[in-house]
Amino acid sequence: MFKDHTVKLGICPIGWTNDDMPELGSGNTFEQCVSEMALAGFEGTEVGNKYPKDTQKLKKALELRQLQIASAWFSSFLTTRPFKETKEAFIEHRDFLYEMGSKVIVVSEQGRSIQKEDVPLFEAKPHFSEGEWELLAEGLNLLGELAREKGMDIVFHHHMGTGVQTKEEIDKLMDITDEDKVSLLFDTGHLYLSGEDPMEVLNLHFPRIKHVHLKDVRDDVAAQVRQKKTAFLDGVKEGMFTVPGNGNIDFGPIFETLAHKEYRGWMLVEAEQDPSIANPLEQAIIARNYIREKAEI
After folding, report:
1. pTM of the model
2. What's the angle, vertex CA 244, arms to CA 200 and CA 58, rounded to 5?
3. Which of 57, 77, 226, 290 could be stapled to 81 by a disulfide with Cβ–Cβ 3.0 to 4.6 Å?
4. Percent of the chain with pLDDT over 70
5. What is the share, in percent, of the chain residues with pLDDT greater than 90?
6. Alpha-carbon Rg of the chain, whole angstroms?
7. Of 271, 221, 219, 272, residue with least CA distance to 248
8. Taking a C-beta distance cutoff of 8 angstroms, is the pair 205, 172 a contact?
9. Rounded CA separation 207/261 (Å)
């Protein structure tokens, strides 16, 4: 289905240890995490909070397991804080990823985000003013310029509980940012949970998509999260997200479209769950087998 050597398959550490909720997987070590990723058949990972900050130590640990760093999450606050604060943190983050050989930098706007707040996920979603949209677009363009200094791209991560969550908001962001400076991360689970058709975003914005997160959703749990007015992190703990092949998203058309359009880059399984309930290695193997079957890679 996919042409040889065009797609790399990885998995994110959030199934083993959760950066926003350290109590989830607190006993799971970095070594266990990357060893089980390799054992399950993946070739890459994004960076978690337990990963060594020393690039030489991290490189050695990954080389032993034949893994690469695909990227890492960066929180921007372009709508709520002076650009200087985001710029300084971004440069440090960029240089770390550059040293690790990454080509893209995942950026998510956390200004006014409710991801970590105890408020209803669907009812309390923030909406940006025109002034905030302008700050976001200007700031992202500048971050894109900084990334290009190292031959890298920023990929914007649309996300539940933020000001860029829906297709309409993604469309607007793509319209007001420079296509040569701001690319898009395509996340199946966040689109599906938001009530959007991931295929619409994939087809419309494919030329801007340079990074993919494969996340599945359990419809029954998602319905309870909406009905009970549950917060985002509580929804995670209740199991609204899962790995591809274990939820309700049909990834067949998604893989077919990515292959047909000759997507090049990383596809990473990203499914935040409680590892005491959803065994990370077992979940990783489920995802890997499903992708092998559906995407033929």
Report:
1. 0.98
2. 105
3. 77
4. 100
5. 100
6. 18
7. 219
8. no
9. 9
212 pairs with which residues across the strands? 186, 267
Q: With beta carbons less than 8 A apart as the criterion, state whether 136 and 79 touch.
A: yes
Three-state DSSP string of 130-181: HHHHHHHHHHHHHHHHHHHCCCCEEEEECCCCCCCCCHHHHHHHHHHCCCCC
Q: Provide the CATH topology of domain 7-295.
A: TIM Barrel (3.20.20)
3-state secondary structure the chain: CCCCCCEEEEECHHHCCCCCCCCCCCCCCHHHHHHHHHHHCCCEEECCCCCCCCHHHHHHHHHHCCCEEEECEEEECCCCCCHHHHHHHHHHHHHHHHHCCCCEEEEEECCCCCCCCCCCCCCCCCCCCHHHHHHHHHHHHHHHHHHHCCCCEEEEECCCCCCCCCHHHHHHHHHHCCCCCEEEEEEHHHHHHCCCCHHHHHHHHHHHEEEEEECEECHHHHHHHHHCCCCHHHHHHHCCEECCCCCCCCCHHHHHHHHHCCCCEEEEECCCCCCCCCCHHHHHHHHHHHHHHHHCC
Token pair belonging to 43: 């070739």
Q: Are strands 216-217 and 241-242 parallel, antiparallel or unpaired?
A: antiparallel
The one-letter code for the residue type at 97 is: L
> In angstroms, rounded to a whole number, what is the distance separating the alpha carbons of residues 64 and 133?
44
CA trace torsion 187, 159, 83, 128 (10° rounding): 130
What burial letters (b/e) apply to 86-108, b meaning 16+ CB within 10 Å?
bbeebeebbebbbebebbbbbbb
Q: pLDDT per residue over 48-80, tens digit each?
A: 999 999 999 999 999 999 999 999 999 999 999
C-alpha 220/C-alpha 68 separation (Å) is: 35
Token readout for 16 is: 């083993």
